[in-house]
Design a protein that fits this description.
three-stranded parallel β-sheet; TIM Barrel; about 45% helix; disordered N terminus; mainly alpha
Length: about 425
């Protein structure tokens, strides 16, 4: 794929990144054989008016080729525990991010080395990667060596849930960041009011919308403080369904009034706490959009409700496009196109990256996806990467990862939280 000379402006982006607080992983520059010098940082959301001079992100987007911009929309999986296969994919498609699963993990140092290798491939074009995973703790945990914490439902049941949720998110974020994972697809913001829910359940903080909202805000703040991108999921709310969107297309019969009372509060709180990303749900909510389209492909839901009504201007990412809920109506490539048209900025795990990439690129070139919609999405993605310090320091010190992951302090914190859950204190 041809790259434009405009990508060299990323040096300016690096120089212009916002001042960031140092995470608990360590603030001094470190160097190891596994990666260049790095500084782990947690940026805060800023606006272009807070910067002096031209906005380097906007200037970069203007100079990027359409092919490069389309690549930034995708978050595919990677193969193996070494960087070779993933690096080749990164160099070919220039995706905005990747997602790890258990097959990518052996040890903390190996993961950090893998992350550095993928970032090295991405930085050949000077655009760092989001490297994410689903580390919710509890029943959805990907890293075999991470310090363990109970489910969100269990954390919410203690006498001091704020402290326990904050501790779990802080320790998790610090350990993810140590191995080069700069994005977590957490926290779950669904209000689980259906006891037959086969997919959310104990992943939720509970059935009380206000309590769930409050704890989502606590978790978002804690993740962001470690330098990890937080992702509230699954908008507009997956808590009242008896169908798993991995295997079918759930229909939730909430009216707009019910949605406002029950599902919206956690997402409103996440937005108020400057959540970096919000993930869509592959669910149909006729009370919000009568078209019958899944929320992931609904402009009424993603643009009208999330952007315009709730005022969210961060990155919108789809849930996995490999799930039946995403593909059952339109098929995977068309689902990717419709999601971008609806207002999604990033496309997670298409079953075929090449097919989905070609479909989106063709839709942009034909005008079906307006160039302005593509530029809007890419600007949000690059802005988020800038604000989280990734242009300045995409690498981690792999030699330090085993010291941080499973540290004595982290294990003590986890035992304390587990004792609170057992005793109800």
């Amino acid at each position: 794929m041809r790259r434009t000379g405009g990508l060299r402006l990323l040096a300016a982006v690096a120089a212009a990144t916002v001042t960031a607080s140092v995470s608990a992983c360590g603030g001094s520059e470190a160097r190891s054989d596994d990666g260049p010098a790095r500084r782990t940082a947690a940026g805060s959301r800023t606006t272009p008016s807070a910067r002096s001079g031209p906005d380097p992100v906007v200037a970069l987007v203007r100079r990027m080729s359409t092919a490069d911009k389309v690549g930034q929309l995708f978050i595919p999986t990677v193969q193996g525990t070494t960087a070779s296969a993933g690096a080749a994919m990164v160099e070919q498609y220039h995706p905005g991010g990747v997602i790890y699963f258990p097959n990518n993990f052996r040890t903390a140092r190996q993961t950090a080395t893998l992350s550095n290798g993928l970032q090295r491939a991405a930085m050949k074009s000077r655009v760092p990667l989001l490297i994410g995973t689903d580390e919710e703790q509890g029943i959805v945990s990907r890293l075999p060596y991470i310090t363990r914490f109970p489910t969100n439902k269990a954390l919410a049941s203690t006498k001091n849930p704020d402290d326990d949720v904050r501790t779990a998110a802080r320790v998790t974020g610090e350990e993810l960041r140590a191995v080069g994972i700069n994005q977590d697809f957490a926290p779950v913001a669904d209000v689980n009011v259906n006891p037959r829910n086969p997919v959310i359940g104990v992943r939720s903080f509970g059935a009380d919308p206000q309590k769930v909202a409050h704890l989502v805000g606590v978790a978002v703040d804690a993740y962001r403080a470690t330098g990890v991108v937080a992702t509230a999921k699954h908008f507009p709310g997956h808590g009242d369904t008896a169908t798993d969107s991995h295997t079918g297309l759930p229909v939730i019969k909430h009216s707009m009034a019910t949605w406002e009372r029950l599902d919206a509060p956690p997402f409103k709180t996440a937005i108020a706490h400057h959540v970096d990303m919000i993930m869509t749900a592959h669910i149909v909510v006729p009370g919000l959009d009568a078209s019958g389209d899944p929320a992931t492909m609904s402009k009424t839901v993603l643009t009208g409700l999330l952007r315009e009504k709730l005022g969210y201007d961060g990155v919108v990412v789809t849930d996995s496009l490999s799930m039946a809920g995403a593909t059952i109506k339109y098929g995977a490539p068309e689902a990717a196109v419709r999601a971008v048209r609806a207002g999604a900025d990033m496309l997670l795990m298409p079953p075929s990256l090449s097919s989905a990439y070609r479909a989106v690129l063709a839709a942009v070139r034909s005008g079906r996806i307006p160039q302005s919609r593509l530029d809007q999405a890419v600007t949000r993605i690059l802005r988020m990467k800038q604000e989280r310090g990734l242009f300045r320091s995409p690498y981690v010190d792999a030699s330090q990862a085993p010291r941080i992951v499973g540290s004595a302090e982290h294990r003590t914190a986890a035992r304390r939280v587990a004792a609170h859950v057992r005793s109800g204190r």
